[in-house]
Every structure is written in C-alpha cells, then in structure tokens.
Amino acid sequence: MLFHSVSFLIAAALLPPLVLILAVYLLDKQEREPAPLLWGLFFRGVLAMVPILVLELVATQFVEFFYWRPIVYLFLSYFVIPGFIEEGIKYRVLRRRVWHDPNFNYLFDGVVYAVFVSLGFAAVENILYVLTSGFSTAVVRAIFSIPGHAMFGIVMGIRLSQAKWAQQHGQREQEEAALRKAWLMPAILHGTYDFLLVAFGWLFYLYFFLLVIYVGASLYRAAKTDGPMRI
C-alpha cells in the first residue's frame, strides 16, 4: 500500500513539469532537437539539485545572522538565495552543455534547452516536497512553483539564444550583455517571485499575472521568429 502511495505522489509531482516540457517542445517547429540531448539536459537539471542544496545550506548559515531584522532576513532568504543560487547553477549547467553543441543552431533552441534544465530541477524539487508534504503540496506547486521555474527557464533560454546569435555574427559586446542577462534576469525574476510570495502575498498574485503575460508574449514571439543562427 505504501509503495502505491509513494508511486502516486511521485507521478503527481512529475506530471506538471512533463506537461510544460511537452508544450514548449511542440512549439519548436523548425528543427526538433535530438532526444538524447534534451533528456540529458533534463537529468543535468535533476543533478543540479546537489550543488544548489549545498550552496543554499551554506548561504542559510550566513543569513541566520540577520534573523532579528525580518525584512532583511526575508530578502536574503527568499530573494538572493533562491534567485541567484538556483538560477546561477542552472545557467552554468545549461551553458556548459549546449554552448558549443552543433545542434544549437536555431534561435528557439535555447528556450527548449533552458526549459528542460529548469524543469528537471523543478521535477526533483517537487518530488521532495510532495513526498514530505503530501498531495495538496503537489497541487499548489503545480499552480505556482512549476510554472515559475518554466518561466524563468524561458527567459534564460531567450537571452542565451540572443547571445549565441551575437557570437555567430561577431558581435562581442552584444554577446556578453546577453549572457549576463541570461543569468541575471531569471535570478531577479525568481528572487522577486519568492520574496513577494512569502512577504507580500497579496502583491504576489499581481506579479504572477504580469509575469505570465510577459513570458507568454516573449515565448510566442520567440516561437514565431525562430530561424537559423546563421543565414
């Protein structure tokens, strides 16, 4: 009975990220990416949980010194730590694997790659939460947390593709600027997301709504303007 219960919780935790992965994958209509590359990125996202947990544990020890100042404590705990550490590790994993890969030859590719990494991490994070908190947690995280990781991945992927395009066309300054944005933009969006959710719940819903509109429009535009890096 316990086995079936655990299996159900794991399936419930995996379903939302896999659905979002499929949705983004189907938007890649120009040239579909090879399955081994994509699932390799997904499992690299899963493995990213290890360095992220280590770095967050170390950072949390430092943040404890600010416990007596609630706003500073919440800002460091829910803006700096999840935003910059999680998105920083995901960015590093993503760039190291795909930057020189010959399959990275279309503008939408970066979006697909980043979403697979982001939702690989989100899937294992969701499994851990669900196994310790139950099915209700899966429902709440399916509504807010999993789409959040997907949106941060989309933003990261769009900027990474812009950087790759700039590199292909010899635009060094634009390449470096886009690479910085590929990490900083998701980090700031993620940090703001978590900070508002914990400290200003009423404002979070407005932020979530605006973020969905912004990322949805960006995703639609990226899919519509997809094309080869070099013509």
Total count of strands: 0
- Please give the radius of gyration in angstroms: 18 Å
Distance between the termini: 58 Å
Strand proportion, as a percent range, falls in: under 5%
General form:
globular
Most strands sheet: none
Order of helices and strands: HHHHHHHHH
Roughly what is the average pLDDT, rounded to an integer? 89
Structural class designation: mainly alpha
Uncertain regions spanning at least 5 consecutive residues: none
Helix count from the secondary structure assignment: 9
Q: Residue share in helices? A: over 70%
Question: Can you describe this structure?
Answer:
The structure is a single chain. The chain has helices at residues 2-27, 35-47, 49-63, 70-98, 109-133, 135-143, 145-168, 172-199, 201-224. The chain has 231 residues and is mostly helical. Helix 7 packs across helix 9 (201-224). It is globular, with a radius of gyration of 18 Å. The model has no long low-confidence stretch (mean pLDDT 89).
